[in-house]
Structures are given as C-alpha cells and as structure tokens.
Please model this.
Amino acid sequence: MDQRLARDPAAIRAMFSKVAPRYDRLNRLLSLRQDVRWRRRLVGALACAPAGAVLDLATGTGDVALGVRVRRVVGADFSIGMLALARRKADRAGRAAAWVLADALALPFAAASFAAVTVAFGVRNFADLAAGFREIGRALLPGGVLAILELHRPGRRVMAGVSSAWNRLVVTPVGRMISHDGDAYAYLPASVDTFPDRVGMAGVLEAQGYAILESRDLSGGIAALTVARWEGA
Model:
C-alpha cells in the first residue's frame, strides 16, 4: 500500500482497474447511498458555470458525467477498466457521452476547452495536487468553474470518531471481502488521513489561481463540496 499512499500513478491505476467491477456496489454500500446524494450536489454546482462543455475528470464508471443533462460532457479517466464500465452504463441508458483515457496531470485537450470541470473522489489520488489544479485551469475557459466532491477528515471530534470507527469496522473489512483487493479499501481511509482537509485544499486552489465560490461540508464533514472559479495564475 506504500506506493498507493505515495500517489504512484501506476499503482493507483492498477487498483482502480482491479476494483472496477465492484466499484459502484461498494460505493453505495459503504456510504449508505450518501454518494448518490453527494454527486447530485456536485452536478447542481454547474449552475454557476458559464455556458459550454463539461469535463468530468476521474469519471470512474460515469455517474457524474451521466448526471449532466443540459451540456455536452466528456468523461475522462486513466483507468481503461473504469471507462469500459462507463461506456456500457451510458449505452444501457441511451445516453450520448464522449469517453477519453486521460491522466489529470497531462490532459489531452486544448487550452480553454471547457466551461466547467467536475471531479468526484479523484483529486485525493493526484500524484501532485497543485500541478493537477494548474492543468485543470489550463483546460478551463477564463471564468470557468471547477467543482470537487471529495472525502476529508471531519473537523468535529465526534464525527471524526464515528468516521474512524466506520472505516475500521466496516469500510476496510467489507471492502476487502467484496473487492477482492485486500489493500484497496484500507487505502481509502488512509488516503483521506494523508490528504488536506477542506480548508487546506481550498488554500491549494487559491494558490493556483482559483477563487473559492463555495466550500461546504456534507454529512457532518465526511465529504465536502468545493466550487472554485478559474481566474488564472
């Protein structure tokens, strides 16, 4: 798990490709379906973005991309296994979307290609958080919006204790049993513990040229929605 916690891209990519077939099931189970509500909040944040296309980065199996209904959307991920599931899900739903194999730190898009970028549970895995935010800014139109849904350490002691117990007693053992990857769902809580909290992440965004529009705890701080406007470095 050391390579994963070091955010080694090859290790993270291999992990997601391995757990992809059971990813949706585990998300619903381990979050008690709160992930569905959180993703709706993420899609709703696009209301403050200018007109134009949306890039759903670290799209996974495509839930956020398929939730965007009034804009052209591109779903991008660096796991081909995840993208295959996203494409299948879109085909079943009769939805049109473009799916692109891409690394968040080296996006294969021209500058100023998107009015908005969404990322659900992905920035925590960036090999270099600041570089990732700069690269997203390059792909955004001036005044474009970056909306992030991410897991964080709860700031309140009681919620932090509840979250820690849930991770120890449920997330890690159940994830290990269902995912067939012994370390993947031990990595999840460990990656949260080694990632900036909501306020710290907002500071990284501001340092890279974003203005924070919204920074809000969800479900007692287990997750957070952060919305920022690209103003340039």
About this structure: The chain has one domain: 2-230. Residues 157-179 form the longest helix (23 residues). The beta strands are 54-57, 73-77, 98-101, 114-120, 140-151, 210-218, 223-230. The CA atoms of residues 165 and 171 lie 9 Å apart.
